[in-house]
Specification:
Blueprint lengths: L4 E5 L2 E2 L13 E2 L3 E12 L10 E13 L2 E5 L7 H8 L8 E7 L2 E2 L4 H4 L1 E3 L11 H12 L6 H15 L4 H10 L5 E4 L8 H14 L20 H11 L1 H14 L20 H18 L2 H20 L7 H21 L5 H4 L2 H9 L5 H32 L5 H26 L5 H17 L12 H4 L6 H14 L21 H8 L5 H21 L1
Parallel strand pairs: 9-10
Antiparallel strand pairs: 1-6, 1-10, 2-3, 4-5, 4-7, 7-8
Main location: membrane
Organism: Pogonophryne albipinna
Protein name: ABC transporter domain-containing protein
Length: about 550
């Protein structure tokens, strides 16, 4: 079944901008006209093979006028309805786009996509929040700061009361109506809905604008008996007087204006609220979502505790002898590598809500930096810091590592830094991915290479010079080096043995072992590993 896109010209009401608008109030709609719209895309190109792509024409020489009211765009599946709607809403990449879209006879403002409302085909609302909470979030970030919190609250309650927002699709519409947009675009608003729900959505759209005139009735064009109905409809429409009047008005609008490419007009995103207001509301919603959906946090903590118990049982109560040296090294290596692999779960952080983020960012809810900082903080605090600290506490005392307060806190800090750096690397890799599975493949490959150059599986000083540079990109290497220095300095493994009778090649002190491993165990040698992890974290986050 092919459904039509709907564009509703709403306009602003005559009330004060601080007065919550009711649906019963008359709205002055905006007139949308489009002239010589052409849109082309290149498909099948390949930069590696130097293969040129084929140019596909999506839209060809479209001209028309949408007066205030309810307007529908009809067409078969794949006919370019969604692309055309995106062009009208200024949400299409200007590359390959030519023509002109006018609002009330003037060029679209650069921030038109922030001023207009747009309901996407696949609903993008935070499912764990209530209708009121979603609308409150939209009002807090999209209404100007001059509107008080009480007035925003009244507007939300008014919308809930008048629209009867009980379904997800209605909630998406309500989140756009919160700003009283001059034009409301809806991409296939009845797709995936049963007949009753689809009818209720259409009735809702009619109620939004009481004076709306139905330009085209949305119909099911999938029936074989209705083939060619669009052509017949166009032919009949061109014979009527309304077509001639619309054509005349369209020519009047374009008179005296030069046709220009849409790419010549810059498109910007403007914000109604400041950085800190956006940060507060997005961070609040993010943590609220975590509280209402705690399975991931509990699972991460449970896995960390389980792995800590496993490593603690295997290396339980290490001794200060040759076996203790080997066991310590194995335990420290396992913990450094384990923190890298445990951080792979953060791949879904930026991928799971990608559609929601793109829609809200384009609509002017918040800045990219605000969203990224809030998601990163929520992930680091709940899924990285707490599990890492619990992991360190359990494993440290079960294994029986160096029993000093300073050594314990350096151990916890080192484990946490490895977790942070690995998480930042995962974010940098997954930032441009759309599928979690593909991101996990790249991250697993990176972790395997870093394991090899961590300092246990191969003696780093013995690596060929043309390969040795790879060790500087190994996160476990820096973590393991810091853990080694913290644990081995000051330890003796030949207690009670006459040092004169010790055969060559036997390591008796932690410092000797560190020298053999090529680890600088000075004070700066310890902290330079943390500095390196911090620099890597900053670089990865900058890339993300």
């Amino acid at each position: 079944m092919s459904e039509g896109q709907v564009a509703i010209d709403m306009g602003t009401n005559g009330a004060s901008k601080h007065q919550p608008a009711g649906l019963g109030q008359q709205r002055r709609g905006a007139t949308v006209s489009f002239h010589n719209i052409d849109y082309k895309v290149t498909v099948g190109g390949n930069c590696l093979c130097r293969k040129k792509g084929t140019i596909k024409e999506i839209l060809i020489d479209l001209n028309g006028l949408m007066k205030p009211g309810l307007n529908a765009i009809m067409g078969a599946t794949g006919s370019g309805k969604s692309s055309f709607l995106d062009v009208l809403a200024a949400r299409k990449d200007p590359a390959g786009l030519s023509g002109e879209v006018l609002i009330d006879g003037a060029h679209q403002p650069p921030n038109f996509k922030c001023l207009s409302g747009y309901v996407v085909q696949d609903d993008v609302v935070m499912g764990t929040l209530t209708v009121r909470e979603n609308l409150t979030f939209s009002a807090a970030l999209r209404l100007p700061a001059s509107v008080s919190q009480e007035e925003k609250k009244q507007k939300v309650e008014k919308l809930i009361q008048e629209l009867g927002l009980r379904r997800r699709k209605r909630t998406s519409i309500g989140m756009e109506l919160i700003i009283d947009p001059p034009v409301l675009f809806l991409d296939e608003p009845t797709t995936g809905l049963d007949a009753s729900t689809a009818n209720s959505v259409l009735l809702l759209l009619k109620r939004v604008h009481l004076a709306a005139a139905l330009a085209l009735n949305n119909s099911d064009v999938s029936s074989s008996s209705m083939q060619g109905i669009e052509d017949k409809l166009v032919q009949e429409y061109r014979k009527c007087s309304q077509y001639r009047e619309t054509r005349a008005e369209l020519e009047r609008i374009t008179e005296g204006k030069k046709s220009s490419s849409s790419s010549s007009h810059s498109r910007t995103i403007t914000y109604k609220t400041g950085f800190f207001t956006q940060f507060r509301w997005v961070l609040k919603r993010t943590f609220q979502n975590l509280v209402l959906n705690p399975q991931t946090s509990f699972a991460q903590i449970a896995v960390s505790l389980l792995l800590a118990l496993v490593v603690g049982v295997i290396f339980f109560g290490v001794k200060n002898d040759a076996s203790g040296l080997q066991n310590r090294m194995g335990a420290l290596y396992f913990m450094a590598v384990d923190q890298c692999f445990s951080s792979l779960s953060s791949a879904a952080l930026l991928i799971a809500e990608r559609k929601l983020f793109i829609h809200e960012y384009i609509s002017g809810y918040y800045r990219v930096s605000v969203y990224f900082l809030c998601k990163m903080l929520s992930d680091i605090i709940t899924l990285r810091t707490i599990p890492a600290i619990l992991y360190a506490c359990v494993s440290y005392f079960m294994i029986g590592l160096k029993p000093t307060v300073t050594a314990f806190f350096i151990f916890v800090f080192s484990i946490t830094m490895v977790t942070y750096t690995a998480t930042a690397m995962v974010l940098a890799i997954s930032a441009d991915m759309t599928v979690v599975a593909i991101a996990n493949i790249f991250m697993t490959i990176a972790c395997v290479f870093m394991m090899i150059f961590a300092g246990l599986l191969v003696n780093l000083p013995s690596i060929a010079s043309w390969l040795a540079w790879l060790k500087y990109f190994s996160i476990p290497r820096y973590g393991l080096a810091a853990l080694q220095i913290n644990e081995f300095t000051g330890l003796k493994f030949c207690g009670g043995i006459n040092t004169t009778n010790i055969p060559p090649g036997i390591t008796c002190t932690g410092e000797e072992f560190l020298d053999y491993q090529g680890v600088d165990w000075s004070t700066w040698g310890l902290w330079q590993n943390h500095v390196a992890l911090g620099v890597m974290t900053f670089c990865f986050l900058t890339i993300a």
